[in-house]
Specification:
By secondary structure, the chain is mostly helical. The protein is 65% helix and 2% strand.
């Protein structure tokens, strides 16, 4: 955990940054420390954390308890509920739950390799190639996320590129290949962004190795958690067949509970999945706490290099000077990155974006747009705002002093939990509240974004010492953290709008269908002219909006954030 001891006097090389040097000088004098007093920090911090805790209770804890209780019951959804002990767990083992678990992990193999091999290599080359090359790389890394439309891409692949014989003869290999190539750009783009932030320590004269290792470990745990919750790929491409060979835990739970009308086995599957995801989440947060991980703001401009770092032959600081060898490597790497991304994701989406066709009867383009984008926007604004306030409470106000980050352990078991493991409980709640087939029901059920809360906590943890040292709150905390709020909202909005599972549970008729459900109907009808339905999944104006925001964030903001570990 972060030490509460004052900073030593600043080294001479920081004199070129008066604001930072002044902050550190104040930190060297305990009598000049600023900010609220300890009792005020404690009271205000816990009060600000309360909304996030209430959202955690409503969105995650209560549904998890409900899922656990249902796993010991025989509940036909309509009829008498009976207690059956562990019979549901015995049944799912007989049905091949371990095989579904193994298949889900297999789907994550290629993304895991991309995150741990391709992404760090690309980040190192971009970092070594110089500032201009690094910024260009960051801009290009935003492209796959801005074009994130998995339903449209998978439906296109199924209609135009898949081989039905391959899906029936070697379904595992076929789906592993499709998942690997269609997720390549997104995984490499996101992972390389994190690794570039971990590498900022090198330009400050530090050792980025520990930060790179921690970043890689967190990314690996995240990829495994995402793979275990895979739903869209088998639901669209195979339906879990042939002979249940491509069933994943989430798809298995949905088929048992909401298709076969037996909530018990599906709840048992979800309970086991929640337990595994809880361990992964606790491991991740524990790693961040043990390593004293934090996100630091390096100012709006690069500072001069630290003493001991030799200048480039041209006289340009090393962090700004590109090396021809690394520039060549970077060009080759980026060409390959863009080629794979364009073939797997961008070309299918662009082809659909300019197609014409008919919509299902009862559905309108305006209604589909509203259903797709407005409920996730509401959910993103609320969940990220609560996360930001909670992150400031823990990392900025530090109500428990040096032990404040321990509060993250309250949220850690649900760090990686998405819609799938809690889908049964949340569906029953929506049914009881009469929200099925309604616009309000389409709002994602998670009212606090736990990944965002962890990110904000790490950021405020890195900013708080300068505030405590006597720096103004606006300059040392508010302005460096503020851009992350709209960025997190935009990312959460885009990802939520591309969900298929929750709209499938809520949208019972064409009037409440989202674009993903319309694309799914196009696949079921197998009509080529239904490519037009895919364009609604991510309309061109929305894609351009996301691209503009993400590129601007990469170049002007994310490039200034540094992931660091250990003592300061």
């Amino acid at each position: 955990m972060t030490s509460e001891q004052p900073f030593p006097a600043p080294p001479a090389h920081l004199s070129a940054d008066p604001g930072r040097a002044a902050d550190l000088n104040r930190a060297a004098d305990p009598g000049r420390a600023a900010g609220p007093s300890r009792p005020v920090r404690t009271v205000v911090g816990l009060l600000l954390l309360l909304p996030a805790l209430l959202a955690l209770l409503w969105s995650y804890v209560l549904p998890s308890v409900s899922t656990l209780v249902k796993s010991f019951q025989r509940d036909p959804l309509i009829g008498t509920v009976e207690q059956v002990g562990g019979a549901n767990y015995e049944r799912i083992l007989e049905m091949g739950f371990l095989g579904a678990f193994s298949f889900a992990l297999a789907l994550g193999l290629v993304p895991l390799l991309c995150a741990l091999l391709v992404a760090p290599l690309l980040a190192v080359v971009a970092d070594r190639a110089g500032r201009a090359a690094r910024l260009v790389t960051r801009g290009l890394l935003a492209l796959p996320l801005a074009g994130y439309a998995p339903v449209a891409v998978l439906v296109f692949w199924m209609m135009h590129r898949s081989d039905p014989r391959a899906l029936s003869e070697s379904p595992w290999l076929t789906l592993i290949w499709i998942v690997g190539i269609t997720s390549f750009g997104l995984v490499v783009g996101v992972a390389a962004t994190f690794f570039l932030s971990a590498l900022r320590g090198r330009r400050a004269g530090g050792r980025p190795g520990p930060a790179m290792l921690v970043t890689g470990a967190v990314l690996a745990l995240g990829v495994v958690a995402a793979a275990l919750q895979t739903y869209t790929v088998p639901a669209l491409l195979t339906g879990g067949g042939p002979a249940r060979s491509t069933v994943t835990p989430v798809l298995d739970a949905m088929q048992n509970s909401l298709i076969r009308m037996e909530l018990g086995p599906g709840s048992a599957i979800s309970t086991i999945l929640l337990a595994v995801l809880g361990v992964l989440g606790l491991t991740t947060v524990g790693l961040l706490l043990i390593t004293r991980a934090r996100i630091e703001w390096d100012g709006w401009r690069d500072r001069p290099a630290s003493p001991g770092i030799p200048p480039a032959p041209s006289g340009i600081p090393p962090e700004r000077a590109g090396r021809p060898f690394f520039l060549v490597l970077l060009v080759v790497a980026l060409v390959g990155f863009l080629a794979v991304t364009a073939y797997a994701v961008l070309f299918p989406w662009l082809r659909a974006a300019f197609s014409d066709g008919e919509l299902p009867m009862g559905a309108t383009s305006g209604g589909i747009f509203v259903n797709t984008w407005f409920p996730p926007l509401i959910g993103a604004v609320v969940s990220v705002t609560l996360a930001a306030v909670g992150g400031f409470a823990i990392g900025g106000l530090r109500p428990l002093g040096r032990w404040s980050e321990i509060l993250l352990l309250l949220f850690a078991p649900w760090l990686f939990v998405g819609t799938g493991p809690l889908a049964i409980a949340n569906y029953l709640r929506a049914r009881d509240l009469d929200q099925i087939d309604s616009l309000i029901g389409l709002i994602p059920p998670g009212w606090v974004s736990i990944p965002a809360l962890v990110a904000f906590t790490l950021l405020f943890r890195g900013l708080e010492p300068r505030w405590r040292a006597g720096g103004g709150f606006a300059r040392t905390v508010l302005l460096p953290a503020l851009p992350l709020l709209p960025l997190a909202v935009v990312v959460s909005w885009l990802i939520s709008a591309q969900q298929l599972l929750w709209p499938w549970l809520i949208g019972q008729g064409p009037g409440s269908w989202t674009a993903g459900l319309v694309a799914q109907q196009a696949l079921y009808r197998r009509i080529a002219t239904d490519d037009a339905a895919l364009a609604l999944v991510l309309p061109l104006p929305m894609m351009l909006l996301f691209l503009l925001v993400l590129v601007a964030a990469q170049i002007t903001y994310l490039d200034r954030l540094a992931i660091r570990v250990g003592r300061r």
